[in-house]
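Deliverable D2.4 — example input (structure tokens):
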């Protein structure tokens, strides 16, 4: 899988291939952060940006017959075109990814290129779509088969899910089958342990200022004007890294039932046995 970027921050033009381990290194202000943040953003949004539409005829067949078989090869043949369209859509997100003005990215392009033989369809797939109270439909693909089978699990009259939502779910499954093995879930680790904590304090400070302004604001104030007045934005990876740090703190405060009910009694037993071994 090859990544290309042009006119992206300090990068006039860049190209690199992703492997199991990819190291991007260079001097300061040469665009390393732009390259990694842009890739991070794409890996976060590719399912939203890659367009795969399911024909209304297919959804109609599912609702009338209770099941429909979709030939995955029809979508495999268009996979590279889907990916190209997805990259074009993602380019419009770059200002949001970097929390920067749109004018900074007017000439920017970000592109992911894959070879046809990198798309593997041999894996099996199974997904059960359900609501809080009932099973709606299942989506399955057998190992080494190229048919996607969608089966309705309730009477059509009882199905309250809009057809557009059903089509979107099936489209997302096709995206996962075509590209899921290529695009892993991204995660960024702070270069310095204190980095996320510093950003978190600033974000919390901005939130507190927002609450103060709400208390002082008049009824005619535009909420969005108020928000932008006090909100200090950060690039997407920074925000998500801060959120992850917050989760770590809350997780560390939780008590594990394993520690309470199993580990501690075992430790007590081992300590007691060790003490007894030294007694006459």
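Example output (designed residues):
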């Amino acid at each position: 899988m090859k990544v290309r970027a042009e006119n992206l921050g300090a990068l006039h033009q860049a190209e690199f291939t992703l492997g199991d381990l990819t190291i991007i290194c260079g001097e300061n202000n040469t665009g390393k952060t732009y390259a990694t943040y842009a890739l991070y953003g794409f890996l976060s949004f590719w399912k939203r940006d890659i367009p795969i539409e399911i024909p209304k005829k297919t959804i109609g067949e599912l609702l009338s017959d209770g099941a429909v078989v979709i030939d995955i090869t029809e979508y495999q043949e268009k996979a590279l075109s889907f990916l190209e369209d997805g990259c074009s859509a993602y380019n419009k997100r770059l200002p949001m990814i970097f929390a920067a003005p749109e004018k900074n990215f007017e000439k920017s392009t970000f592109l992911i290129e894959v070879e046809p033989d990198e798309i593997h369809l041999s894996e099996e797939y199974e997904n059960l779509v359900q609501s809080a109270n009932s099973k709606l439909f299942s989506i399955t693909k057998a190992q080494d088969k190229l048919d996607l089978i969608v089966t309705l699990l309730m009477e059509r009259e009882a199905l309250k899910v809009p057809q557009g939502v059903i089509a979107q779910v099936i489209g997302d499954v096709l995206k996962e089958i075509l590209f899921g093995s290529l695009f892993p879930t991204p995660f960024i680790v702070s270069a310095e342990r204190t980095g996320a904590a510093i950003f978190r304090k600033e974000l919390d400070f901005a939130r507190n200022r927002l609450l103060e302004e709400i208390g002082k604001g008049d009824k005619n104030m535009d909420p969005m004007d108020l928000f932008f007045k006090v909100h200090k934005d950060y690039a997407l990876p920074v925000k998500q890294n801060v959120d992850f740090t917050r989760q770590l703190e809350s997780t560390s405060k939780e008590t594990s039932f394993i520690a309470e009910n199993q580990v501690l009694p075992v430790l007590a037993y081992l300590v007691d046995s060790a003490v007894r071994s030294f007694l006459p």
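Strands lie at 2-8, 11-17, 67-71, 109-113, 125-130, 135-141, 147-152.
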